[in-house]
Amino acid sequence: MSTASPLTATQVLAAATELLESGGYSVVPTPMSWQGAVRLFEDSYGIVALHLYDTWEQLLQTWHVTQGQLVDLISEHLSRPEPKAWEGYLALFTTGPVTASDRTSVVDLRYDTNRVRKLVSTGEELETLEDVRVALLPLLPLDLQPPSTARSGLLDLLPELMADDDVPREFVEELVSAFAKNASIVERLHEARGEQQ
To answer: How far apart (Å, rounded) are the C-alpha atoms in residues 51 and 63?
Structure first.
């Protein structure tokens, strides 16, 4: 069990800002009429308003105001046919706890895609920097690792397994090599058989 103290609102906001910026978003000046701990971001594909509330009760009572402000902002600056106009995200975070009786309200809000998509995270879900990253995962670019060129798993075992069935090991190794290089397996098999004769 972790004894580290939970993140403060400032830490959550700073971590979220850093994650979104490193994910390709730019910080956009927040309109003066927007109150509270709020940040506005955009990239080539969408717009994100991140609003951090002190308590769940504040979030529940006023999230619709922030949503309206985001929708108005999108409407003012983007025309309806622009794809970016349809990619509005409202990240509603609170460092405050949620009671068991309010859990249903959290889920309902997450599934409310009316006007904009909503990401909702509460105090129990924002205890570490990793939690902040997980909360923002739908907005962050995929971390795709290039495929490994090394053979592994069953392909490594195949020559040995086939040798047990009286299949010459060198043929199987040639076939596995051709497969790994995306070459014609049948052609390589014929070449290998021709080399043996």
So the answer is: 9
- Measured CA to CA, the distance from residue 12 to residue 72 in angstroms comes to 26
The Cβ-side half-sphere exposure at 147, using a 13 Å CA radius, reads 5
pTM of whole model > 0.85? Answer: no
What are the structure tokens assigned to 41, written together?
Answer: 């971001």
Instruction: Identify the H or E element spanning 117.
Output: strand 117-121
CA distances from 39 to 31, 50, 66, 163 (A): 10, 5, 11, 63
- Across the beta sheet with 26-28, what order do the strands follow? 26-28, 37-42, 47-53, 88-94, 117-121
Give per-residue pLDDT as tens, 4-43: 678 888 999 999 999 999 999 999 999 988 888 899 999 9
Query: If you ran DSSP here, which 8-state letter would residue 93 be given?
Result: E
Return all residues near 128 (Cβ < 8 A) that are at least 6 apart. 2, 4, 7
Closest Cα to residue 118, out of 143, 100, 135? 135
